[in-house]
Model the fold of this input.
Amino acid sequence: MGTPANDIDRLVKREYKEGFVTDIDSETLPPGLDESVVRFISEKKSEPEFMLEWRLKAYRHWLTLTEPQWAHVHYEPIDYQAISYFSAPKDKDGLNSLDEVDPKLLETYEKLGIPLEEQKVLAGVAVDAVFDSVSVKTTFREKLAEVGVIFCSISDALHEYPDLVKRYLGSVVPAGDNFYAALNSAVFSDGSFVYIPKDVRCPMELSTYFRINAMNTGQFERTLIVADEGSYVSYLEGCTAPMRDENQLHAAVVELIAMEGAQIKYSTVQNWYPGDEHGRGGIYNFVTKRGACRGRNSKISWTQVETGSAITWKYPSVLLEGDDSVGEFYSVALTNNWQQADTGTKMVHIGRNTTSTIISKGISAGHGQNAYRGLVKVLNKADKARNYSQCDSLLLGDRCGAHTFPYMEVKNPTAQVEHEATTSKISDDQLFYCRQRGLSEEDAVSMIVNGFCKEVFKELPMEFAVEAQKLLEISLEGAVG
Amino acid sequence: MLSINNLHATVAGNPILKGIDLEVGAGEVHAIMGPNGSGKSTLANVLAGRDGYDVTEGQVIYRDKNLLEFSVEERACEGIFVAFQYPVEIPGVSNLYLLKTALNSVRKHRGLNELTAVEFLKLIKEKIKLVEMKEEFLHRSVNEGFSGGEKKRNEILQLAVLEPALAILDETDSGLDIDALKVVANGVNSLRDAQRAIIVITHYQRLLDYIVPDKVHVLANGRVVKSGDRTLAFELEKHGYAWVAQDPNDAVAPSPGS
Done:
């Protein structure tokens, strides 16, 4: 009988099933970044003039910034001149139907469980498939257009709805917000755009599947979701990448805007390649996600399940501007082997009677380091603002770490802010108890971890909840029914 | 069904069991009594195969197999069940889910088809009546926030669902008031049958008023020092454990070398 630590070691060994490479002809820029690269990307996409100006401004600002150092993560300095900033499968331009998409691309998504033929897709889920720097295909566009919902790649949106994009892009995450957001603003290549018109309840789940394929390429996608008054949308995001020994950078920006009475539910299952068991390779996931509850009674809810990436730096936040608006953040972050995560949220209470809820579940295994970092800020006009935060950490084994950095800035005396935190280990007693009832060790660990994450999983849309459970299962090499 | 010969076991290097001999046949109920530290709970843990309980000598034959070769979950699937003295809490995992997963693991091991959610629900609604628990207990997290009595009932519910061949009740009576004790005892009695053996570990004869044993064994200092029928429990109640230890004529397992 092995020691419990060894058992857990064995249990958390995982296989990354999405680690294959698609052999496809790509047009890839040589590594390096200067103004000509920014111009190239903008020209490649035949963008309107304002976009190029916007990008260049962001680029020039980026040059003045330095990388944030405050996160509880450690890595060798990134050489931004060694990264290629654009890579796209060849002959993509001017596709009219799925028949014209390279079969290898279709095969790739099929293999990932994301079929792009509409009849094969899970009923009720529309998909925008992004491969390296470009959107390959957006399904159900026409069907959604019937109710006025716009769902397309951001490149297409810049051509077809330039005014909408111009009005909202950068309105929540300004181009110069932080180092990675500025970089993204300068070189973002694709991503999804969603507009839900007034009083429309989006009839399907919208989703984007991000895939990194090319070597030494950064992925910089940009997502913009606008929910007009009284509308509702649920949006899902998934991501994978091949297994490689080099680290790859993924620096995305997501902006959400909810008008009066609108609701946006944004769910992520992040499964970027996490690196191998020695900490070689893996994605650096440095992402800025922020939503603005612009109108009264609006609501933005972030749910994230973060199991991949070598390093995660990510704080999906909500600016609660409208009175009575609601912000939520539900998170499960798993770090195994040498993965590091510094993730959490910012809830900024600006309007009156604003409410926020934060539920964070961190799971650390192997040598994984997992930090929750959260800010609850109540401005002086936010009468009767309320926040409840709960941060729970679960440790598997004795070489991993869990850290909690909660910050609170409260400038209104009528505010109520609560914070609870716990750290626990899967105990040998729990494992023994389950095994004595006939469960294998793997099943027991999976069951206990899933129980730990239950409050977050129940916030995920059904299809995703199942996927998230499966992902944890793979990560812990066990089975969950 | 169960044959224990000269079983020695250590915990963290300290010898706790020092030569246990015990025969339990199918259909029998055996009570194991003894003072604190006599090795009762250790025996239960050794039979369950818990890490940290090391067998240094002797053997345990269970249904013609060498039990000590099997892992914890294999023993469970082969029909050994321990009702624990201190059942653990598992936050976020519902009782129902644990029970269904456990039952299906056991069924799979025995070559039976796994029960669907609907079939399982039907079964559990019958079983829960045995321990007089409300159905809401099924949806609560395993043992979380349960009172001592509720935890023990929950153990018996699991016993009833898993229908083991050999059930070991480790001080199931501790911390129970008389009403809860009766409920638990009724649950156990309803599971008595010719195919099943039950070992009841207890300090007190009180439980044995309700679960009447076929045989009573007294454990002291890691050995069975006296065995008899249920009247032995009454004697113990009257005279205390010191009485057994002090009577050399009744000691059945003289320690070699002393």
